[in-house]
Amino acid sequence: MKKVFLFSIIIGLSFSCAKKVSQDETTKVTTEETKPEHIVGGDSDAHGCKASAGYTWSVVKNECVRLFEVGTKLEHAKDGKTYSTVAYVIFEKDGNKAELFLDTQKEPIMLERKAEGEPWINGDLELIPWKGYVLKQAGKIIYTGE
Question: CA-CA distances (angstroms) from residue 129 to 42, 48, 77, 119?
């Protein structure tokens, strides 16, 4: 009788332990599955532009754009250094305003010109239409592009 009683206690404990492990594993799986995931394209800005899809807001175009599709690419001036970034400029339809997206700035910079053939200016920045475009800051060439 003692043997049967002892045997039933041992079997009961083993089922109890197995059940507990099984519940812990189920809880773990459920917790991992319900974690919020990062949703690609779920990063709309104030204008509804999705940066993860390459879109940014353009004041000149008044819409979300992909700079590499609609902008004119400007590369760092050759100064002996190697760069992995570029800048872009988007021109207004009539051409008197230019929106400059520098890789060193969070917000775009608006440049304006007084007449056709003149440079677009904002402070010490000057975008000159010469063999494509030359962007100068305080008289020093910092970007060039076509």
Answer: 39, 33, 15, 7
Name the pairing type of β-strands 109-112 and 63-65: unpaired
Taking the model in full, what pTM does it have? 0.68
The residue whose two tokens read 């305080």 is 138
Task: For residues 17 and 113, give the distance between their C-alpha atoms in angstroms, rounded to a whole number.
Answer: 79
Neighbours of 99 (CB within 10 A): 22
The CA distance from 88 to 140, in Å, is 18
Which residues of 4-106 form beta strands (DSSP E)?
A: 56-58, 63-65, 72-76, 86-91, 97-101
Interatomic CA distance for residues 7 and 31, integer angstroms: 36
d(CA 80, CA 62): 37
**pLDDT greater at residue 80 or residue 35:** 80
Which of 60, 78, 59 has the alpha carbon at shortest distance from 145? 78
Query: For 10-26, what is each residue's pLDDT tens digit?
Result: 555 444 444 444 444 44
CA angle 94, 62, 56 (to 5 degrees): 120
